[in-house]
Write a structure and sequence with these properties.
mainly beta; single chain; globular; 184 residues; 8-stranded antiparallel β-sheet; 5-stranded antiparallel β-sheet; disordered C terminus; 46% strand; 0% helix
């Protein structure tokens, strides 16, 4: 069952340098949830070095693809997927409150590849993570090489942005409504 492909919006306070667009394809297949993040204009994209596929914090400090799953009330979970193949997941009781590491029964499989001037990051997850989720936010932190040839220029992409600085934790960013059919 396919949910669709969604275009992310660059936050106006953090314009990209060379990246033209970021999109996410969401597809549920059997017991798997497949996310395919596509970055067009990725010639200057900074990618972290490949690493063992294990849990790590602070993945958002460089190019990182993310998903937020809102549950009824104010609780939500944050998922970080690094092109290095590292990942992290956190559970929150309310907006940035009660943050703690959350367990994943099955670790995500993350693969990055180039396709022309695009970078594609495919993430395979257990569809069980959707249990209890009513909405989702799809986001990306994109780091590009600066004019000096060094990394450090970041842009922040999401389905929607709230007021002020980029903040993916705002519930107003969780605009993807999940149908009951998407649950396991």
């Amino acid at each position: 069952m396919a949910l669709g492909t969604f275009s992310l919006i660059c936050h106006p306070q953090t314009p990209a340098m060379g990246v033209k667009s970021v999109s996410v394809a969401w597809e549920a297949r059997g017991d798997a949830l497949m996310l395919r993040y596509r970055v067009d204009g990725a010639g200057g994209l900074v990618l972290p070095a490949p690493a063992a596929p294990e849990r790590h914090d602070d993945l958002w400090k460089t190019t990182c693809f993310e998903m937020f799953l809102g549950q009824a009330g104010t609780t939500y979970r944050e998922f970080n997927f690094s092109p290095s193949s590292c990942w992290a997941t956190y559970a929150f009781a309310d907006y940035r409150e009660g943050g703690r590491d959350a367990e994943m029964a099955i670790a995500p499989a993350i693969v990055i590849r180039r396709e022309g001037d695009a970078a594609i990051c495919e993430v395979r997850l257990s569809r069980a993570i959707l249990d209890g989720a009513v909405c989702a936010g799809l986001t990306a932190v994109i780091e590009e090489m600066g004019v000096d040839g060094k990394g450090g220029h970041k842009s922040y992409w999401a389905l929607a942005h709230g007021e002020g600085r980029p903040d993916f934790h705002k519930r107003s960013c969780f605009t993807l409504q999940l149908a009951a059919a998407e649950a396991p």
